[in-house]
Automatic annotation (TrEMBL):
It comes from the Bacteria. It comes from Brachybacterium phenoliresistens. Belongs to the diphosphomevalonate decarboxylase family. One of its GO terms (biological process) is isopentenyl diphosphate biosynthetic process, mevalonate pathway. Residues 9-164 form the Diphosphomevalonate decarboxylase-like N-terminal domain. The keyword DNA-binding does not apply. GO terms for molecular function: ATP binding; diphosphomevalonate decarboxylase activity. This is diphosphomevalonate decarboxylase.
Amino acid sequence: MTIDATARAHPNMALVKYWGKRDEQIMLPSTGSLSMTLDEFPTTTTVQLREDHGPDVLELNGAVAQGEPLRRVTRFLDLVRERAGSEARAVVRSRNEVPTGAGLASSASGFAALATAASAVYELPQDTRSLSRLARRGSGSACRSIIDRMAVWHAGEDDATSFAEQIEAPELAMVVVVVDAGGKKVSSREAMRLTAATSPFAAAWRASTARTLEEMLAACREGDVERIGELAETNALRMHAVIQSTVPSVRYLRGASVGVFDAIEQLRADGLQAWGTADAGPNVVAITRPADAAAVADALAGHGEVRVVRPGPGARLVDERVAPVSTGEVR
Ligand code: 2P0
């Protein structure tokens, strides 16, 4: 009998953003979205069943975690146990390799790795679609981190039809520009609620994103990098516009972030093709062709720490284990 399993997953960066839920209970998004799974910053998670009937335990980056992170993992494992017909509690050991303060969210890689490892130990279905549906319940964007390279998340009509799957797309690279390593004051989940409740532009955002997704899928099929970049930049700026239009206003972009969008526009005017995007935080990511990535990184280095990332693997089981806190160093 398997009593522990370990999985590794990477964050993803959306080219068409998920911003809003149709059903928060089962995590149905109000529109579909599309992303690139990154080849850097993995989360590795070991799930070990407890034999002593103690409570769920979460060890995160070498320290025992309590409070909301533990509650969120326990709620997720409760869903897993319900489906598996099991009452076994677990020790979850998780390690993120995001450099300190890189500003990249780890909930997508975290719940993708947890869904994959938990499905193995609790003996739930482990096909890609089942894992994507399950990861979605932990954090919406996690359903995309199950998938290799490029993923579309179908909004779906119900739990069974809301999942991510791989799409063909041209080779891309991204340059992550860390302008501010601080945490955010308002979580994505909270700001999504605020957007739905208070923004006069929420319906327009949903309608435009649904159209953009169709156009993005066509641009990916056609291998049209320029169109992909243009659509992604517009979609990201529209997302930030709708977020800023909430009451009270939430502003994730800082002056320095806007400066990076300006610099990217200037690069294009100078003949180097790159397009900006940004998630629910101040850091900006330039989308470009692999051949141009080093030049874009050089050009943007004055705005913050830069990292070039490429398409990466979806979540998968690995042989190593994340070591327990008590043994000292967490590998
Ligand atoms: C995305 N973001 O598509 C968008 C763009 C942030 C900005 O998905 O409430 O952590 O757990 O489903 O997935 C971040 O939100 O939110 C996100 P929940 P999640 O990547």
